[in-house]
Amino acid sequence: MADGEGVARMPQMKFILQCSECGEQNYITTKNRQDTQKKITLRKHCPRCNKHTEHREARLRK
Known about the structure:
Helix content is about 0%, strand content about 50%. By secondary structure, the chain is mainly β. The model has no long low-confidence stretch (mean pLDDT about 85).
């Protein structure tokens, strides 16, 4: 087990949804990287813009 043998890799991947209008990073969610290969875009509420806007997938900073 010291070499990482037997450790299962999780298909879930965390990412941020970023507002396309103001650039605010509002939501953190997950997706299955085996099922969903393309970037996700959703219409969600942005508190900074105070309206529903398109949110695009962005990388989660560590």
